[in-house]
């Protein structure tokens, strides 16, 4: 049996070995299959449970157990495949809509029929293919290419192959045609040489010169044929040399001013010494008109550059679509095709626009005035001085009104509305405030001034009289208020007296009525008591039906209660018997 010291030593050795394995100084531990066990794996993962019998260190208990692995099947599902012959009559349990046995009516994907196959037995659909229940992995169930036949892609390859062969055939035919033309030209040339030999020596010498010139022209034409494809490798500021197959930079003329010497400001446009280019305008911050160099971008985006760029783009698109056109090789054909294309494009847009307007309407919305009139804003540059005068540009035109302007009627020299006085419009030429009146000139101004003075005096008098009227009105209101107050007091005193007299009379009448009601109630109560005594003296068997009940179910009045109290007999009263005797 191991002692405590040896166990402690063994534990210390195991810890040192574990630290050495983690540090990499000792070899890693291996499992039963010979694979290394990572020493950094925690103990709770590397140690096997008690119910797993392992004789040596292993991670087999962490891996998927062989007895629990499912045997997955490989295969693909046929979708939309019809199987077996089509039935001729409806079968029990089949779809009521189409007659197929493999599904029910609620799962049927056929068009709902007016009369189903269950009732007429016509046009019964074949049964679908029911695939086997394949046991597949997670990826196998979600394989998007499951069931795809790679042989189907051969159709795409064959199509591209046919297109390539057609291109080669057309190219061979074109080369054959060119070779035929070349042979014809050589034959014609040979015939001409034979005819020229028959001429004199002078003519022969001249013909030799012509042949040399033609040969030189032929060589130039061949070079041109090579140069016509140079635009495919050209770049801005370069020139293609077809003889040496090299790209040479365009050098400036030595008499011209260098680009970097136009403006010596270091913060001006950037100059690239490698390409000798200055794209931006070196005088961008100034407004000089005598500038000789405005940058290379100015040249690239001015003149016919934009048109050439559009034509080149059209040539590239046409070449991609199979049209043999080239901007440098055949510029005339290129110009004709491009102009025809633009006309067709404009006509197509116009036809489309007219068709949309004809179908949906809305022409009235397109007939709107220009944006300058709607927003009163333009992009025209205008520069003003401090005094408000126009220095550069065109001054903004004043928008005209839809009404007639500067139309003078009735001898007026100004329009109505050019004069304002006392809240009224008038004519400035005669100060008349009446529209459509006849002009009176300076006399009208004098009359207007006198009228104005009279109006001021009248207003002043009206103001004084208004003050007096206000004082008189205030005195009248004060007197009227005093009179009303006095009359109100008299009325109040009279009403009090009348109320007192009326209340006395009313109280006397009410007392008399109450007394009469009480006397009548006392008489009724005495009669009731006598009737009660009479009934009580009778034999019970001879009493009338419900004779002991009250005459009515209503509550007694105050007079009846007072009469009952007055006629009530007190048995303790010593005079009660005396009253009965009397």
Order of helices and strands: HEEHEHEHHHEEHHHHHEEEEHHH
* Tally of DSSP helical segments: 14
Biggest sheet overview: 2 strands, antiparallel
Low-confidence stretches: 203-207, 221-240, 242-247
Number of strands: 10
Shape: extended
Portion in strands: 5-15%
Let me know the average pLDDT. 79
**Share in helix:** 40-55%
What oligomeric state do the depicted chains represent?
A: single chain
**How much is the radius of gyration in Å?**
63 Å
Describe the protein.
With 582 residues, this protein is mainly alpha-helical. The chain has 14 helices and ten strands. α12 (442-537) runs parallel beside α13 (558-567). It is extended. Residues 203-207, 221-240 and 242-247 have low confidence and may be disordered.
Which features characterize this protein?
582 residues; mainly alpha; two-stranded antiparallel sheet; two-stranded antiparallel ribbon; 47% helix
SSE diagram, text form:
Blueprint: H1 4-23, E1 29-30, E2 36-37, H2 43-46, E3 82-83, H3 117-120, E4 127-128, H4 138-141, H5 154-197, H6 201-227, E5 238-241, E6 246-249, H7 296-300, H8 305-320, H9 331-360, H10 363-366, H11 371-375, E7 383-384, E8 390-392, E9 416-421, E10 424-427, H12 442-537, H13 558-567, H14 576-581
Antiparallel strand pairs: 1-2, 3-4, 5-6, 7-8, 9-10
Helix pairs in contact: 12-13
């Amino acid at each position: 049996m191991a002692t405590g010291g040896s166990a402690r030593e063994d534990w210390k050795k195991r810890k040192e070995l574990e630290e050495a394995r983690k540090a990499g100084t000792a070899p890693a531990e291996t499992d039963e299959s010979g694979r290394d066990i990572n020493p950094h794996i925690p103990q709770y993962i590397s140690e096997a449970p008690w119910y797993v019998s392992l004789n040596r260190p292993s991670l087999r208990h962490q891996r998927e157990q062989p007895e629990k692995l499912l045997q997955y099947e490989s295969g693909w599902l046929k979708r939309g495949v019809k199987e077996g012959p089509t039935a001729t009559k409806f079968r029990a349990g089949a779809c009521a809509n189409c007659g197929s046995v493999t599904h029910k009516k609620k799962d049927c994907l056929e068009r709902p029929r007016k009369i189903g196959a269950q009732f007429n037995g016509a046009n019964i659909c074949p049964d679908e293919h029911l695939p086997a229940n394949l046991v597949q992995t997670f990826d196998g169930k979600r394989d998007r290419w499951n069931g795809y036949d790679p042989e189907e892609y051969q159709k795409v390859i064959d199509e591209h192959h046919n297109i390539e062969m057609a291109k080669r055939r057309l190219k061979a035919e074109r080369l054959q045609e060119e070779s035929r033309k070349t042979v014809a030209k050589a034959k014609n040339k040979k015939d001409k040489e034979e005819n020229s030999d028959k001429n004199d020596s002078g003519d022969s010498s001249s013909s030799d010169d012509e042949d040399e010139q033609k040969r030189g022209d032929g060589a130039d034409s061949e070079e041109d044929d090579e140069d016509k494809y140079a635009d495919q490798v050209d770049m801005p500021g370069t020139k293609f040399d077809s003889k040496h197959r090299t790209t040479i930079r365009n050098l400036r003329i030595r008499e011209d001013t260098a680009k970097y010497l136009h403006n010596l400001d270091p913060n001006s446009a950037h100059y690239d010494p490698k390409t000798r280019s200055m794209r931006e305008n070196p005088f961008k911050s100034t407004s000089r008109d005598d500038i000789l160099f405005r940058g290379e971008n100015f040249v690239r985006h001015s003149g016919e550059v934009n048109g050439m760029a559009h034509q080149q783009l059209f040539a590239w698109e046409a070449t991609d679509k199979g049209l043999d056109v080239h901007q440098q090789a055949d510029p005339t054909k290129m110009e004709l095709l491009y102009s025809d294309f633009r006309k067709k494009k404009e006509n197509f847009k116009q036809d489309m626009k007219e068709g949309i307007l004809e179908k949906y309407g809305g022409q009235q919305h397109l007939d709107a005035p220009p944006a300058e009139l709607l927003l009163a804003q333009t992009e025209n540059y205008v520069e003003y001085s401090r005094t408000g005068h126009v220095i550069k540009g065109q001054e903004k035109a004043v928008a005209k009104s839809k009404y007639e302007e500067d139309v003078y009627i009735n001898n007026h020299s100004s329009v109505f509305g050019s004069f304002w006085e006392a809240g009224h419009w008038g004519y400035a030429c005669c100060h008349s405030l009446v529209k459509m009146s006849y002009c009176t000139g300076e006399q009208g101004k004098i009359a207007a001034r006198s009228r104005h003075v009279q109006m001021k005096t009248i207003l002043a008098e009206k103001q004084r009289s208004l003050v007096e009227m206000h004082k008189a009105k205030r005195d009248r209101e004060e007197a009227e208020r005093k009179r009303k107050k006095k009359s109100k007091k008299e009325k109040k005193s009279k009403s009090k007296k009348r109320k007192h007299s009326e209340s006395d009379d009313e109280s006397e009448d009410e007392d008399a009525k109450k007394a009469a009601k009480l006397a009548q109630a006392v008489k009724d109560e005495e009669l009731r008591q006598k009737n009660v005594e009479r009934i009580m003296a009778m034999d019970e068997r001879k009493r009338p039906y419900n004779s002991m009940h009250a005459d009515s179910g209503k509550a007694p009045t105050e007079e009846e209660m007072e009469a009952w109290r007055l006629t009530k007999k007190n048995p303790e009263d010593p005079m009660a018997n005396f009253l009965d005797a009397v």
